[in-house]
């Protein structure tokens, strides 16, 4: 038995004193591109969510966060393990600890997203009886330098109409009933649409034949529009995506993107509209509901 095998894993709420250790080990993850160092202080002071750490051998060995997206929807994010302590069950203990907190203090549904290649997280989800509900992958296309007048802003008096279009669009079911909030997914609601209106991200397409919500996404120094939600008929989908490319050029972008549902009908329309898949893997969404 190795000396380090004698240590127990202790999971607890995160504290300000954990900051130096967390910043140190997360700064080395993803070749220094992890976002955790940029949001850690914000997470520490967000008392609506639950931020947890795992201790091992007196050091912070892992972190994870539970975030409320609505009164009944929760998002599990930021699960990280200090590379120094890989292979000791840190992620498994943290996942179970945060899930137990959610089951004791919340209700509704909890979701998480993970890469299709992260087999350990898939095993954890299966162990804890999460269901795989959705899968997305990235598509991008160059913008089209053609003038377009197909879009008008959604306003706050039109939210109920917008929700009706969303829920009756075949894309709602093909998108698994989910809306992207910036690498977090939930069911679209009036509150969510009001937030997008405030940020000028929601647009009617061609006299309400469709609705698009897209935000600016940053990848390194590159900025480009990324679709969060799209509602229209399947027959209109290719034309709507082509106008999205034209709108991107009008806003000064060189490309546009969509983390699109892995659905054959949507993929066919994307190809027809000149989009190409840019990820080899995909993003898988899992969820678990509290007993009714």
Strand content: 25-35%
Main sheet specs: 13 strands, mixed
The CATH topology assignment of the largest domain is Aminopeptidase
General form: elongated
Q: Treating each run of at least 4 consecutive H or I residues as one helix, how many helices? A: 9
Domain module tally = 2
> What is the highest CATH level, the class of the largest domain?
Alpha Beta
Distance between the termini: 45 Å
CATH architecture group name of the largest domain: 3-Layer(aba) Sandwich
- The ordered H/E elements are EHHEEEHEHEEHHEEHEEEHEHEE
Gyration radius, in Å: 21 Å
CATH H-level superfamily of the largest domain = Gcn5-related N-acetyltransferase (GNAT)
Helix content: 25-40%
Mean pLDDT: 93
List segments where confidence is low: pLDDT < 50 over at least 5 consecutive residues.
none
List how many beta strands DSSP finds: 15
Structural class: alpha+beta
């Amino acid at each position: 038995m190795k000396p380090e095998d004698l240590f127990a894993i202790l999971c607890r709420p995160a504290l300000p004193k954990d900051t130096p250790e967390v910043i140190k080990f997360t700064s080395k993850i993803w070749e220094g591109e992890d976002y955790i160092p940029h949001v850690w202080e914000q997470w520490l002071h967000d008392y609506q969510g639950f931020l947890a750490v795992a201790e091992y051998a007196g050091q912070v060995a892992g972190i994870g966060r539970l975030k409320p997206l609505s009164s009944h929807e929760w998002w599990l994010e930021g699960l990280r393990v200090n590379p120094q302590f890989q292979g000791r069950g840190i992620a498994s203990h943290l996942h179970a600890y945060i899930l137990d907190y959610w089951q004791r203090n919340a209700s509704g549904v909890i979701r998480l997203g993970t890469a299709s290649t992260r087999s350990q997280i898939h095993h954890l989800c299966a162990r804890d009886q999460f269901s795989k509900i959705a899968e997305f992958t990235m598509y991008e296309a160059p913008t089209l330098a053609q003038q377009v007048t197909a879009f008008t802003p959604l306003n706050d008096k039109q939210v109920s109409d917008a929700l009706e279009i969303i829920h009756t669009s075949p894309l709602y079911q093909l998108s698994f009933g989910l809306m992207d909030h910036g690498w977090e997914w939930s069911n679209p609601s009036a509150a969510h649409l009001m937030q997008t209106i405030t940020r000028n991200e929601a647009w009617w397409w061609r006299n309400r034949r469709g609705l698009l919500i897209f935000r600016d996404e940053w990848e390194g120094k590159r900025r480009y529009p990324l679709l969060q939600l799209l509602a229209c008929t399947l027959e209109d989908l290719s034309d709507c995506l082509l106008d999205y490319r034209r709108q991107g050029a009008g806003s000064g972008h060189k490309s546009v993107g969509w983390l699109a549902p892995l659905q054959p009908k949507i993929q066919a329309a994307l190809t027809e509209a000149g989009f190409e898949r840019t990820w080899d893997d995909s993003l898988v969404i899992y969820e678990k509901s509290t007993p009714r």
